[in-house]
Specification:
Elements (H helix, E strand, L loop, with lengths): L2 H33 L5 H11 L2 H6 L20 E4 L17 E4 L8 E3 L4 E5 L7 E5 L10 E6 L18 E6 L4 E4 L14 E8 L15 E2 L2 H4 L23
Antiparallel strand pairs: 1-2, 2-9, 3-8, 4-5, 4-7, 5-6, 6-9, 9-10
């Protein structure tokens, strides 16, 4: 076997191994999500989404293009709000729960639009393939405080971006009004072997006090999106239906 033939054969083995690892990761993630659930409205909704038929899945979709009464934000994407704020289920934990909400798309990657939840200033760091962060200089629920809105997974698994061209890498402080098209949902998960479903991860991140954003991966740096969207989005709510409600905040 010459060097070229050997290289092709070796590459084929590596490619098959990578594919198997990705498929195994997706399967393990699904098993973890389904077996890690402990009952309640959130659990049943997730089971219907992952295991239900098209009619059941369609019934779980939330579409809220206008502000809920008394709430400042609009829902940034249509979809199934399946992973809630503070969710401790695998792959998260009670010590490190989910920092935002995941809005799963019924369609394929690159099809479901993502809109700005509020007026603010968009930044896309030079290395970001799938994410944007938006500075809101005056928190509408706590005037005088700056908050940041984080939108992630807007790319395919190879990192080909679905973000609108207006927000190229190394964009900083570009103002957009509420409802501006930012991009489309995807399933990019960085260098992780875990395959993910097409969705938007949306979170509200605290300011660092120096004009920058804090680390979104730390739960303590994030805020409950429920009062901003007017919906019961905290895991403690265990809501059967995610929609506008008069009192959306549920304390754990």
């Amino acid at each position: 076997m010459d060097g070229r033939t050997f290289s092709r054969a070796r590459w084929g083995c590596w490619a098959r191994a990578a594919l198997l690892a990705t498929l195994a990761g997706a399967a393990l993630y699904l098993v973890a999500r389904l077996t890690g659930l402990t009952g309640g409205g959130s659990s049943e909704r997730l089971r219907r989404w992952w295991l239900g038929d098209a009619t059941q899945r369609q019934a779980l979709i939330t579409v809220q293009r206008e502000q809920c009464p008394g709430a400042p934000f609009v829902l940034p994407a249509d979809g199934f709000i399946g992973l809630l704020y503070a969710d401790p289920s695998s792959p998260y934990s009670a010590a490190a729960p989910h920092q935002g909400i995941d809005i799963f798309s019924l369609g394929a990657r690159g099809q479901t639009p993502v809109y700005a939840a509020y007026d603010g200033y968009i930044t896309r760091e030079a290395s970001w393939r799938s994410a944007l962060i938006q500075r809101v200089p005056d928190d509408p629920l706590q005037p005088g405080r700056t908050i940041w809105l984080y939108y992630a997974h807007m790319a395919d698994p190879d990192g080909n971006s679905y973000i609108e061209p207006a927000f190229a890498p190394d964009t900083h402080e570009l103002f957009v009004p509420q409802g501006t098209l930012l991009g489309y949902t995807g399933d990019y998960n960085g260098a992780s072997l875990w395959a993910i479903s097409v969705h938007l991860h949306f979170s509200i991140v605290a300011d660092d006090g120096r004009g920058g954003y804090t680390n979104e991966l730390e739960f303590a740096n994030t805020l409950d999106p429920s009062p901003y969207l007017g919906m019961p989005l905290h895991y403690a709510c265990q809501a059967e239906t995610i929609a506008c409600v008069p009192n959306p905040v549920c304390l754990p």
